[in-house]
């Protein structure tokens, strides 16, 4: 067999092997959260866009929620505005909120939409303000140390939590074969803007759409223990213990919480996977070699 013929035979084999996986997910909705850290190169972004277009082409319905923490950080730095985080959430004053809205709703959202469309998809970019897609209220953060008799309330500014998702809009777009690309900006009862952690938005969107899967693409192999081993199949209690002993901190806190909550709220399974691996989404959906942290009521199929 010539080399060309051998390569073609391999391609045909790979496609054929994907058939049972494609059949399993046809017509199902998958919510994919694309973290700002997993957008670190043009090559990765292009690969992500192609994976999303391929999913749609075989009849699966991807809904994308994106982050952009590092990109917000870059512009804040250029503007000499300092920012800091509490429990993985950016403390957001009015000035920072303007920057968040510009970067997430403008630069990052349109960049992803453009990439998907250039590769043959029909992506529509939205923030939570479009048709009130993400209704939100101010997030209350509390902190308690062993010395304190009661928890103190910490004001982290214009940071929100999701109150409701406009599923009519998303269902309409999905039915029309569009790919929604959502920036995690919420709108309050009086039209005010809220900065919401993108993982939390993805979890709530997945719950509201009763998605088959929530995939959280990040810049690490998964949720790891202190020795660096990727942990999978964790219960709420195990996660609570890992938070209490400091194994889970920072940006992983909202991620693992929303992965658990989504499954408790009816999503088939949640996954935390390494978005730096080329074709991470395809590996997870169309093969048995998916890796990362799986939270599910079922066993990995
Ligand atoms: N137990 C843990 N396992 C893996 N990563 C962890 C853990 N605890 C904290 N982290 C941190 O969480 C980060 C992922 O969160 P984040 O930076 O917010 O990603 P993203 O931008 O993809 O949402 C990791 O890069 C790591 O620094
Ligand atoms: C409240 C809060 O922290 N919001 C995030 C929103 C973006 C985000 O979540 O981006 P990643 O997924 O890339 O981390 C922020 O301001 O960075």
Automatic annotation (TrEMBL):
Pathway: Amino-acid biosynthesis; L-arginine biosynthesis; N(2)-acetyl-L-ornithine from L-glutamate: step 2/4. The keyword Kinase applies. It is found in: Cytoplasm. Residues 28-273 form the Aspartate/glutamate/uridylate kinase domain. Keywords: Amino-acid biosynthesis, Arginine biosynthesis, ATP-binding, Cytoplasm, Kinase, Nucleotide-binding, Transferase. GO terms for molecular function: acetylglutamate kinase activity; ATP binding. Its EC number is 2.7.2.8. Substrate binds at residues 68-69, 90, 195. It catalyses: N-acetyl-L-glutamate + ATP = N-acetyl-L-glutamyl 5-phosphate + ADP. The record marks 33, 255 as: Transition state stabilizer. One of its GO terms (cellular component) is cytoplasm. GO terms for biological process: L-arginine biosynthetic process via ornithine. InterPro entries: AceGlu_kinase-like_sf (IPR036393), AcgluKinase_fam (IPR004662), ArgB (IPR037528), Asp/Glu/Uridylate_kinase (IPR001048), Glu/AcGlu_kinase (IPR001057), NAGK-C (IPR041727). The keyword Secreted does not apply. Belongs to the acetylglutamate kinase family. ArgB subfamily. Catalyzes the ATP-dependent phosphorylation of N-acetyl-L-glutamate. PANTHER family: N-ACETYLGLUTAMATE SYNTHASE, N-ACETYLGLUTAMATE SYNTHASE, MITOCHONDRIAL. This is Acetylglutamate kinase. It comes from Pseudomonas frederiksbergensis. The lineage of its organism: Bacteria, Pseudomonadati, Pseudomonadota, Gammaproteobacteria, Pseudomonadales.
């Amino acid at each position: 067999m010539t080399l060309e013929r051998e390569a073609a035979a391999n391609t045909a084999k790979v496609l054929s092997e994907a058939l049972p996986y494609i059949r399993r997910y046809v017509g199902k909705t998958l919510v994919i959260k694309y973290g700002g850290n997993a957008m670190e190169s043009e090559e990765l972004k292009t690969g992500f866009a192609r994976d999303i277009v391929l999913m749609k082409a075989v009849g699966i319905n991807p809904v994308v929620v994106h982050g952009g923490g590092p990109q917000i950080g870059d512009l804040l730095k250029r503007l000499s505005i300092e920012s800091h985080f509490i429990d993985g959430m950016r403390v957001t004053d009015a000035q920072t909120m303007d920057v968040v809205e510009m970067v997430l709703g403008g630069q990052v959202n349109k960049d992803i939409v453009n990439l998907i469309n250039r590769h043959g998809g029909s992506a529509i970019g939205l923030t939570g303000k479009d048709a009130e897609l993400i209704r939100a209220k101010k997030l209350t953060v509390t902190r308690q140390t062993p010395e304190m008799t009661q928890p103190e309330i910490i004001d982290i500014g214009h940071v929100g939590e999701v109150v409701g998702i406009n599923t009519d809009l998303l269902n309409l777009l999905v039915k029309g074969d569009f790919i929604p690309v959502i920036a995690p900006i919420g709108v309050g009862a009086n039209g005010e803007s809220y900065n919401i952690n993108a993982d939390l938005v993805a979890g709530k969107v997945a719950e509201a759409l009763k998605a088959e899967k929530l995939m959280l693409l990040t810049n690490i192999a998964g949720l790891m223990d202190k020795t660096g081993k990727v942990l999978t199949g964790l219960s709420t209690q195990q996660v609570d213990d890992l938070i209490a002993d400091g194994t889970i901190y920072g940006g992983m806190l909202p991620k693992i919480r929303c992965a658990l909550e989504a499954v408790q709220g009816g999503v088939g399974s949640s996954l935390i996977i390494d978005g730096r691996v080329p074709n991470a989404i395809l590996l997870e959906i169309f093969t048995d070699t998916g890796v990362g942290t799986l939270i599910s009521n079922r066993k990995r199929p």
